[in-house]
Amino acid sequence: MEVKQCRKCGEHKEITSFDWTNKQKGYRKSYCRDCSIKIYTQWKIDNLERHNKWFEKYYNDNPERFGKTGKKPTGRKPMENNELKSGVYVITNTETGETYVGCSNDVKRRIWRHFYNRGRSKVKPLSKALKQYGKEAFTSQVLEYCPKEQKFEREDYWITQYGCEYNTSKKKK
Protein backbone atom coordinates (compact mmCIF):
# COMPACT_ATOMS: atom_id res chain seq x y z
CA MET A 1 0.00 0.00 0.00
CA GLU A 2 1.50 3.27 -1.15
CA VAL A 3 1.10 6.28 1.19
CA LYS A 4 1.42 10.01 0.55
CA GLN A 5 1.36 13.04 2.88
CA CYS A 6 -1.18 15.82 2.26
CA ARG A 7 0.37 19.30 2.09
CA LYS A 8 -2.71 20.91 3.65
CA CYS A 9 -3.66 18.70 6.63
CA GLY A 10 -0.30 16.90 6.98
CA GLU A 11 -1.94 13.46 7.31
CA HIS A 12 -0.48 10.38 5.69
CA LYS A 13 -3.14 8.74 3.51
CA GLU A 14 -3.43 6.04 0.87
CA ILE A 15 -2.40 7.18 -2.59
CA THR A 16 -5.97 6.62 -3.82
CA SER A 17 -7.11 9.51 -1.54
CA PHE A 18 -5.34 11.92 -3.92
CA ASP A 19 -6.95 12.85 -7.26
CA TRP A 20 -5.01 12.75 -10.52
CA THR A 21 -3.44 15.88 -12.00
CA ASN A 22 -2.09 13.95 -14.99
CA LYS A 23 -3.10 10.30 -15.12
CA GLN A 24 -0.97 9.50 -18.21
CA LYS A 25 2.21 10.64 -16.46
CA GLY A 26 1.08 9.26 -13.10
CA TYR A 27 1.01 12.61 -11.24
CA ARG A 28 -1.34 13.11 -8.32
CA LYS A 29 -2.45 16.28 -6.52
CA SER A 30 -0.52 17.35 -3.43
CA TYR A 31 -3.74 17.82 -1.43
CA CYS A 32 -5.96 14.91 -0.37
CA ARG A 33 -9.53 14.73 -1.68
CA ASP A 34 -11.04 16.05 1.57
CA CYS A 35 -8.76 19.10 1.63
CA SER A 36 -9.35 19.73 -2.09
CA ILE A 37 -13.11 19.86 -1.50
CA LYS A 38 -12.68 22.27 1.43
CA ILE A 39 -10.39 24.53 -0.61
CA TYR A 40 -12.76 24.61 -3.60
CA THR A 41 -15.85 25.20 -1.45
CA GLN A 42 -14.12 28.11 0.31
CA TRP A 43 -13.06 29.52 -3.06
CA LYS A 44 -16.69 29.40 -4.27
CA ILE A 45 -17.84 31.28 -1.16
CA ASP A 46 -15.10 33.90 -1.52
CA ASN A 47 -15.71 34.29 -5.28
CA LEU A 48 -19.47 33.82 -5.44
CA GLU A 49 -20.15 36.26 -8.28
CA ARG A 50 -17.28 34.90 -10.39
CA HIS A 51 -18.45 31.31 -9.81
CA ASN A 52 -22.04 32.12 -10.79
CA LYS A 53 -20.86 33.88 -13.99
CA TRP A 54 -18.80 30.82 -14.87
CA PHE A 55 -21.77 28.55 -14.19
CA GLU A 56 -24.08 30.60 -16.46
CA LYS A 57 -21.48 30.59 -19.25
CA TYR A 58 -20.91 26.84 -18.83
CA TYR A 59 -24.66 26.20 -18.94
CA ASN A 60 -25.10 28.28 -22.11
CA ASP A 61 -22.09 26.69 -23.83
CA ASN A 62 -23.09 23.09 -22.96
CA PRO A 63 -26.87 22.71 -23.36
CA GLU A 64 -26.51 19.00 -24.17
CA ARG A 65 -25.25 18.33 -20.64
CA PHE A 66 -28.51 19.63 -19.17
CA GLY A 67 -30.96 17.63 -21.24
CA LYS A 68 -32.52 18.10 -24.66
CA THR A 69 -35.21 20.46 -23.38
CA GLY A 70 -32.77 23.30 -22.80
CA LYS A 71 -34.22 23.91 -19.33
CA LYS A 72 -31.97 25.05 -16.57
CA PRO A 73 -30.60 22.19 -14.48
CA THR A 74 -32.66 21.17 -11.49
CA GLY A 75 -29.97 19.39 -9.49
CA ARG A 76 -27.17 21.90 -9.87
CA LYS A 77 -27.74 25.53 -9.07
CA PRO A 78 -25.50 28.54 -8.78
CA MET A 79 -24.32 28.72 -5.21
CA GLU A 80 -26.46 30.73 -2.82
CA ASN A 81 -24.81 33.05 -0.35
CA ASN A 82 -26.38 31.32 2.62
CA GLU A 83 -23.86 29.56 4.81
CA LEU A 84 -26.54 28.86 7.42
CA LYS A 85 -28.62 25.78 6.69
CA SER A 86 -29.45 25.14 10.32
CA GLY A 87 -32.46 26.70 11.92
CA VAL A 88 -36.04 26.35 13.13
CA TYR A 89 -39.16 25.48 11.10
CA VAL A 90 -42.89 25.05 11.66
CA ILE A 91 -45.28 22.56 10.03
CA THR A 92 -48.97 23.50 10.25
CA ASN A 93 -52.05 21.36 9.66
CA THR A 94 -54.33 23.69 7.68
CA GLU A 95 -57.46 21.67 8.52
CA THR A 96 -57.04 21.59 12.31
CA GLY A 97 -54.62 24.46 12.93
CA GLU A 98 -52.27 22.21 14.93
CA THR A 99 -48.53 22.89 14.63
CA TYR A 100 -45.16 21.24 15.01
CA VAL A 101 -41.94 23.21 15.56
CA GLY A 102 -38.61 21.53 14.90
CA CYS A 103 -34.96 22.37 14.36
CA SER A 104 -32.28 20.82 12.18
CA ASN A 105 -28.78 21.31 10.82
CA ASP A 106 -30.33 21.27 7.32
CA VAL A 107 -33.84 22.69 7.65
CA LYS A 108 -35.10 22.24 4.09
CA ARG A 109 -33.96 18.62 3.95
CA ARG A 110 -35.56 17.87 7.31
CA ILE A 111 -38.91 19.32 6.24
CA TRP A 112 -38.78 17.19 3.09
CA ARG A 113 -38.08 14.09 5.20
CA HIS A 114 -41.14 14.77 7.37
CA PHE A 115 -43.39 14.76 4.30
CA TYR A 116 -41.84 11.80 2.49
CA ASN A 117 -40.96 9.53 5.42
CA ARG A 118 -44.17 7.51 4.94
CA GLY A 119 -44.93 7.00 8.62
CA ARG A 120 -41.45 6.14 9.81
CA SER A 121 -40.88 9.47 11.53
CA LYS A 122 -39.74 9.66 15.14
CA VAL A 123 -42.43 12.33 15.68
CA LYS A 124 -45.36 9.92 15.94
CA PRO A 125 -48.27 12.40 16.30
CA LEU A 126 -47.11 14.36 13.25
CA SER A 127 -46.49 11.17 11.29
CA LYS A 128 -49.99 9.86 12.10
CA ALA A 129 -51.57 13.18 11.13
CA LEU A 130 -49.70 13.18 7.82
CA LYS A 131 -51.11 9.70 7.11
CA GLN A 132 -54.61 10.71 8.19
CA TYR A 133 -54.95 14.10 6.44
CA GLY A 134 -52.41 13.68 3.61
CA LYS A 135 -49.43 15.92 2.96
CA GLU A 136 -51.60 18.36 0.95
CA ALA A 137 -53.26 19.42 4.24
CA PHE A 138 -49.96 20.68 5.68
CA THR A 139 -47.83 23.76 5.09
CA SER A 140 -44.24 24.30 6.16
CA GLN A 141 -42.27 27.44 6.80
CA VAL A 142 -38.72 28.20 7.90
CA LEU A 143 -39.03 30.46 10.92
CA GLU A 144 -35.38 31.43 11.11
CA TYR A 145 -31.88 30.38 10.21
CA CYS A 146 -29.40 30.33 13.07
CA PRO A 147 -26.01 28.83 13.98
CA LYS A 148 -26.07 25.14 14.95
CA GLU A 149 -25.14 25.99 18.55
CA GLN A 150 -28.31 28.10 19.00
CA LYS A 151 -30.89 25.92 17.25
CA PHE A 152 -32.27 24.18 20.37
CA GLU A 153 -32.58 27.45 22.26
CA ARG A 154 -34.41 29.06 19.33
CA GLU A 155 -36.63 25.97 18.96
CA ASP A 156 -37.71 26.27 22.61
CA TYR A 157 -38.54 29.94 22.03
CA TRP A 158 -40.73 29.16 19.00
CA ILE A 159 -42.47 26.26 20.77
CA THR A 160 -43.63 28.68 23.46
CA GLN A 161 -44.86 31.07 20.76
CA TYR A 162 -46.87 28.50 18.79
CA GLY A 163 -48.16 26.09 21.45
CA CYS A 164 -47.29 23.10 19.26
CA GLU A 165 -49.78 20.27 19.60
CA TYR A 166 -47.61 17.77 17.69
CA ASN A 167 -44.46 18.31 19.81
CA THR A 168 -44.33 15.52 22.38
CA SER A 169 -40.79 15.59 23.79
CA LYS A 170 -40.77 19.32 24.59
CA LYS A 171 -43.00 20.61 27.36
CA LYS A 172 -45.24 23.53 26.44
CA LYS A 173 -44.61 26.50 28.67
Fold and architecture overview:
With 173 residues, the protein is an alpha+beta fold. It has two domains: 3-66, no CATH class; 87-162, 3-Layer(aba) Sandwich (GIY-YIG endonuclease). It is 35% helix and 18% strand. The chain contains five helices and seven strands; from the N terminus they run E-E-E-E-H-H-E-E-H-H-E-H. The protein has helices at 33-46, 48-61, 107-116, 124-133, 151-162; strands at residues 3-5, 12-14, 20-22, 27-28, 87-93, 99-104, 138-145. The protein has a three-stranded antiparallel sheet with strand order 6-5-7. The protein has a two-stranded antiparallel sheet with strand order 1-2. A hairpin with a 5-residue loop joins strand 5 (87-93) and strand 6. Mean pLDDT is 81; it is low at 72-82.
Rg (CA only): 23 Å
* Cross-sheet strand order for the largest sheet: 6-5-7
Q: What is the subunit arrangement here?
A: single chain
Largest sheet: 3 strands, antiparallel
Strand content: 15-25%
Query: Can you count the beta strands?
Result: 7
Architecture of the largest domain in CATH? 3-Layer(aba) Sandwich
What value does the average pLDDT take? 81
